[in-house]
Amino acid sequence: MDNVSELLHGFTIAVTVPHLALMAVGVLLGILVGVLPGLGAPNGVSLLLPLTFGMQPVSAIILLSSMYWGALFGGSVTSILFNIPGEPSSVATTFDGYPMARDGRPTTALATAFGSAAFGALVGVILITFLASWVAQVALAFGPAEYFAVYFLAFASFVGMGGAAPIKTVVALAIGFAIAAIGIDTVSGSVRLTMGVDELVKGVNFVVAVMGLFGIGELLVAVEEEFHARAVSSKIEWREVFRAIGRLPRHGVALLRSAAIGCWMGITPGGPTAASFMSYGIARRFSRRGRYFGTGEVEGIISPETADHAAGTSALLPMLALGIPGSATAAVMMGGLMIWGLNPGPMLFVDQKDFVWGLIASMYVGNIVAVVLVLLTVPVFAALMRIPFVVIAPLIVIICVVGAYSVSNSYLDVVMMLGFGVVGYLFKKLFYPLAPLVLAIVIGDKAEDAFRQSMLMSKGSLSIFFANRLVTCLVVSGIALLLLPLVLQLARPFRKSTAGETSAQEKVII
Amino acid sequence: MRGTSVFLLSASVAVFAASAPACAAWQPQKPIEFVATAGPGGGTDNMARAVQNIITKYKLTDQPVVVVNKGGGSGAEGYVYGKASAGDPYKVIFGTSNAWQQPLVSKVAFNYTDLTPIAAMAQDEFLLWVKQDAPYKTAGDYLKAAASGEFKMGGAQSKDTDEVLTRMIEKTGNVKLTYIPFKSGAEAAVQLAGGHLDSHVNNPSESLGQWRGSTQRPLCVFSPKRLPAGPKITATEGWSDIPTCTEQGLDIKQYEQPRTVWLPGKVTPEQAAYYVDLMKKVQATPEWKDYIEKSSQIDTFLTGADFDKFIKEDLERVRQVASEQGWLVK
Question: Above 0.90 for ipTM, yes or no?
Answer without folding.
Answer: no
